[in-house]
Amino acid sequence: MAQASVTLQIATLPDSPGVYQYYDKDGKLLYVGKAKNLKKRVSSYFTKNFDNNRTRLLVKKIATIKHIVVKTETDALLLENNLIKNYQPRYNVMLKDDKSYPWICIKNERFPRVFPTRRMIKDGSEYYGPYTSMKTVHTLLDLIKGLYPLRTCNYDLSEEKIRAEKYKVCLEYHLGNCAGPCEGFYSEKEYHENIEAIRNIVKGNFKDSLHKFKSQMKQLAADLKFEEAQRVKEKIDVLENYQSKSTVVNPKINNVDVFTIISDESYGYVNFLQISHGAIIRSHTLEIKKKLDETDAELLQLAIVEIRQRFNSLSKEIYVPFEVELGEDIKVHVPKLGDKKAILELSERNAKYFRMEKFKQVKIVDPDRHEKRIMAQMKKDLRLTEEPRHIECFDNSNIQGTNPVAACVVFKNGKPSKKDYRKFNIKTVEGPDDFASMEEVVYRRYKRLLKEEQPLPQLIIIDGGKGQLSSSLKSLDKLGLRGKIAIIGIAKRLEELFYPDDPIPLYLDKKSETLKIIQQLRNEAHRFGITFHRSKRSKQALNTELETIAGIGEKTVVELLKHFKSTKRIAAANFEELSKVVGASRAKKLVEHFSNK
After folding, report:
1. CA 211 to chain centre
2. Which parts of the sequence belong to the GIY-YIG domain (predicted)?
3. I need a surface site. Which of 174, 274, 487, 589 has the fewest CB within 10 A?
């Protein structure tokens, strides 16, 4: 399909936080930006009158808009930073300098120091973050240092040097901020236990630390040290309100390619996330048109090879939703839990958004392709032998057995065909019998279609469970149509789909387009039937009221309704107007009745 227009690309953007990228007609990246709401932010570029010449020039050059969906604004900020630093787009200025976001480092040494840094050095040290502000880092470090005594010196605290008494405790020891490992006052085992607790804090697991803080606060309050207790309480509040590290970035995930696939009957959509030093530096979704009935595994395998070649990826490890064969040189990992699984889910979410945008664009510019895809999907989901281009749905309507009616609505190519809707008065059934009523209307409907040699539907949907479905099958048997038209029943409560001679119902994905069309059919049949039923009850109620007036018979009622059109107008008419239609005697009775009412 040809490149969608910018207007169309904007129209199908999601209302989600993320990062957007503008490209010119030659595919050159012009600008990267972040947004709380992608659609609103990108739309603003094309609706505002900018004073800045560079901004106006940028907007003129935009030919393609790409985006990456993330969970939060924080994720968008960090991802924007990664992309700008990696690609240096021409129109980005703010994040092109050497400034980077801060990390918390747990140094790789015998008694590890914990400190903030903006540089990552590959020496085996652990890095957590990045954080969106240094204030957040200092808050966390203040909390950590307030709870766990840690050294701040840069001495080489080897066992030999401590034993040789090379160092003396400093002011930090006397202030109570350090337990003095330099003189052997603090065991290595206890120090590393505290480091493990600190790891939990920076990972966002505050449970143990919160418990200790709360115990500390209660003890201080019991000792009547209320000011100190209040300071501890403030730290608890900060911890409880603090959101854990970004899901977009995890420093432990380095030099990895992530691939996921979403597919339908006709197309596969493969999303690729490239991760370097724990940060997403690239996102790309590839659309693949199916030629045969390829599996997701086959499509994903082909796409991985194509995308890695296209972007010259040399990563030795990939994350995928299921096993694929890519040779011995690449480690294939299928994440089940934690941060790796979250990255996989993020990739899948981007593939889903891409697919939805394509659907919206196709629906606008190529409705025939949209219809073909929907029909092919319904055929597959409902286990049919042919595409359900013509569907008819039946519903009964009666209240306490009065005025029983039924409705038949018709969908063609997935859309309502209102000129083909039909309504039925129940003729052969006495009382509220939904099963017999359904049998009657299905028989009448298809007997007439056969008689008039009209085309039959590929699918009949019965609003009801096994009972209504069985009754409908009796009618098809009588007409010799069983097996020639697919028929299913849908039960309202759990959206169960029942098939003839199959006791086990089918459950479709609640978000599937097939189920949505079936629900639309069922709701439309219910609406159409209820409207007819109300109309019938209303007319009967009006007619009955006129007939209850002494001296007013059926012929008089017909004359009145023919002239005045409704009971409301009859009630509003004066004596002269009524006497012209039914004579003075009857007019007097009508005026007296409505006056008393």
Report:
1. 36
2. 15-93
3. 174
Nearest one of 333, 355, 353 to 344, comparing CA atoms:
333
pLDDT in tens, the chain (597 residues): 446 788 888 888 998 888 999 999 888 998 888 888 899 989 988 887 776 677 788 888 999 999 999 887 667 766 876 787 778 788 765 433 444 667 889 999 999 999 998 887 777 888 876 665 677 788 778 878 877 888 889 888 888 888 888 888 888 888 888 888 898 888 888 899 889 888 877 765 667 777 877 888 999 999 998 988 998 887 777 666 654 444 445 667 778 899 999 887 778 888 988 886 666 767 788 887 776 566 788 788 778 877 887 776 788 889 999 988 776 778 888 988 887 888 888 888 888 888 888 777 766 766 777 788 888 888 888 888 888 999 999 988 755 445 677 888 999 888 888 888 888 887 777 666 778 888 888 898 999 888 888 889 999 988 877 888 888 889 898 888 888 889 988 887 677 888 888 888 888 877 788 888 888 888 888 888 777 666 665 555 555 567 677 777 767 776 777 777 677 788 888 888 888 888 888 888 888 888 876
Separation of first and last alpha carbons in the chain: 69
Q: Which two tokens stand for residue 101?
A: 């976001």
- CA geometry: angle at 325 spanning 319 and 330, to 5°? 55
Check: CB of residue 579 under 8 Å from CB of residue 587: yes
d(C-alpha 386, C-alpha 332), whole Å: 39
Give the DSSP letter string of 258-278. Answer: EEEEEE-SSEEEEEEEEEETT
Sign of CA dihedral 8, 10, 15, 20: positive
Spacing of C-alpha 505 from chain mean position: 26
* Size of the chain in residues: 597
Contact yes or no for 124/108 (Cβ under 8 A)? yes
How does DSSP classify residue 496? E
Nearest Cα to 371, choosing from 307, 415, 318, 308? 415
- Residue spans of alpha helices (H) in 366-501: 367-381, 434-451, 466-479
Strands 486-491 and 459-463: parallel
Spatial separation of the C-alpha atoms in residues 431 and 428, rounded to whole Å: 10
Sign of CA dihedral 247, 251, 252, 256: positive
Coil, strand or helix at 515: helix
Q: Is the pTM of this model over 0.85?
A: no
- How distant, in Å, are the alpha carbons of 109, 162, 552 from that of 181? 13, 8, 109
Burial class (CB in 10 A: 0-12, 13-18, 19+), 39: middle
**407 and 532 Cβ atoms separated by less than 8 Å:** yes
Residue (of 500, 454, 512, 452) closest to 475 by Cα position: 500
Please name which of 513, 358, 353, 359 lies closest in space to residue 15, comparing C-alpha atoms.
Answer: 353
Torsional class of 522: left (φ above 0), alpha (ψ -120 to 50), beta (otherwise): alpha
Which DSSP helix (H) or strand (E) runs through 156? none
